[in-house]
Structures are given as C-alpha cells and as structure tokens.
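forwarding from the other thread:

> can someone predict this with S-adenosyl-L-homocysteine?

sure thing
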Amino acid sequence: MKQTFTDILKKEELSRDNIITLLNANSEDSKLLFAKSEEIRLKYVGNKVYLRGLIELSNICGKDCLYCGIRKSNKNICRYNLTDEEVLKSVKYAYENNYASLVIQSGELENKAFAERINNLLVKIKKLTKGKLHITLSCGEQSEDTYLKWNKNGANRYLLRIESSTKELYNKIHPNNKKHSFEKRIEALNALRKTDYQTGTGIMIGLPFQTIGNLADDLLFMRKVDIDMVGMGPYLEQKDTPLYDFRNTLKPIEERFFLTLKMIAVLRILMKEINIAATTALEAIENKGREKAVKAGANVIMPNITPAIYRENYMIYENKPLPSSSEILVPEKNLNKIGYKIGWGEFGDSAHFCKRFKKK
Ligand code: SAH
C-alpha cells in the first residue's frame, strides 16, 4: 500500500524516496511537515535562537566558482580587505552587545600570508574578548596544518559548504580544474571533521541543473558526514557570473524559498541536535524570511556586523539585504511573537557536537 504523507512523517527512519516526497510537499502538506520539524526542534534544541555576528573579512578570492559574485574573474566589483582595526571594531560590537559568537567569512585564499593573518587576528580577538566569544571561520579550503593552527589559536567552529554533494552537479557549477576539485573539497571537510572543530557544511538550493533527488542526497550526505552544523540557502542568480546564462531554467524565486524551508525542516527531522542557520539569502527574498526558517527548524541567525561601507562589495548574489549604516538587524520582537527567544550571551554550541565530543 502506498504510504501517505502523514505515514511518512511518523516513520523513525526516512528512505531517500521518503525524503523526496517530503521535499515535494505542496503547501497543505508542508504545514504537517513544519509542525513535525517544529515539534522535534523544541524537544531537542529548545526555543532559543543563537546569534553569530557575521564579519565579511575580504572579497578577494582566488577561486572562480560559476555562481558567485566575488569570483576572481568578476571585474565589476571593488575588492576590499578589512584592516585589523576594522575587524576588531566589529568584534568589540559583538562582544559588548552580548552576541557570544562571531563568524569570520572571506573569499578563498590558500597561501601563507592569509593563514598568518587569520592566526594573528584570532590571537587579537581572543585577547580583546577574554575568550568570551566563540569564533566560527568560513575561509574555504586550507591545508590540514592551517586548520589545526587556527583551531589552536582559538577558532572553535568551521563552516565549509560542499555546495552540492553530487559530483556531476558540483562539476557543472565550478570550473573544471584542480583549484575547484570536488574530491579536494570533500577531503577538506573530512579533515575538519576529524579535528576538534564543530564542523559545518551546506549547499545552495535551486541551482540550475539541480533535481529534488540531488537535494535529498545532500541531506543524506550531511548525515553521513555526521556534521554538527549546517548553513544552506537559496541560490540567487548574479548577473556577473557564468551561471546567469541559465536564469531562465530556474525555479521561481518563491519556490526556491519554499524549498529551502522544506530542506531545513527535513534536515531537522534527520539530525535533531545539530545547529541550523537561517541564512541571509532567505532574507533577500522575503523580509521575514529568517523567522520562517526558524519556525521550520533553524536555531541560528547571523546578523551582519561588517562595517557598513564594505557591505555592498560582498555581493555574492544580488539583492543582498543592506541595512543602513548603524542598523544591525536582530529580529527579536518578531521571534518573540512566534514563541522563540534570542540566546543573548550564550555560545549556543551544537548539541550534536557536545555529545559526540564527550563520547570521544
Ligand atoms: N569562499 C568561502 C566562503 C565565501 S562565500 C568558502 O568557500 O568557505 C559563502 C557562501 O555563499 C558560499 O559557500 C556559497 O554557498 C554562497 N553563495 C555564493 N554565491 C551564491 C549565490 N549566487 N547564491 C546563493 N548563495 C551563494
């Protein structure tokens, strides 16, 4: 007998086909899906939403990913690199405003000078904040040695999106050369997972050529790697990138948004205790995008605390939300209204990580 949507939601173990059915949910069925993921979220990770102050360190990038606005070949953006003083000013803001966590994200450079720069910054940040801020790095593929040094110098978490866990799709959205090797990215992620980092990955949703089956495989991949945290968001076309040529093949933007919410919900069901971020890309589509993601199962938000004058140059995609200079958006009131609380002053480490670490 064919399983109904409700039958699938009751199952302990979801098959790939079950996941596909859940991801294909229409608006009626999706209500059941979101109710289930919210129930699991409240039971396993509670109603807190943790903050990560996002600092976009530099848009200088050595890679040429076919979807990304800060790709090396894009001549239409102004490249910047924050000074240490600028970074520390943002850090101080996060520290004084009780964020408890930071993310430092950057274009990808795999060289000694960059590795040293991050080392020095980590030391300065730890000193300034007396170790009271947990730090996530999102600085791309690096050698194992560099990852370990950064970890030793105070980075607690690392986010390296696999972008797509399907090799054929990965190769369609990246140049075909050594610098953009699928195997190398997988190796980097595995290297991170073996260290003491809370390890995060993620993907883009609604890419050209991407199928629902690919997305189901991405979720299963995250579970197989036994990841601690995930940041995934809708793909947003960027006019200065090669993938822009395929814009007419994309799902409408509202559908990519809806699919992202369903991905978050199914991931919460599959991996109950991990941290899941409601990404900025969601906010670019709908102004209460992040709140919807929280209701679907996300428990982390990343307010952008990069100095305002640089924010417009970190244009990974178009329509990126750019709050005015002094404004940093923490949607606290809206979250309170739907029963959630900001975890001010709490690290909000991944419960999944804490458990597996104690086991080690
Ligand atoms: N290069 C760093 C991170 C910088 S880019 C790294 O690899 O760790 C941060 C993320 O933005 C990427 O991982 C990618 O998933 C996302 N991104 C890039 N272009 C995008 C686009 N056009 N739409 C949506 N997300 C995009």
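The pocket of S-adenosyl-L-homocysteine is lined by residues 67-68, 105, 107-108, 138, 140, 160-161, 163, 204, 233, 235-236, 238, 281, 316-317 (CB under 6 Å). thats all i got for now
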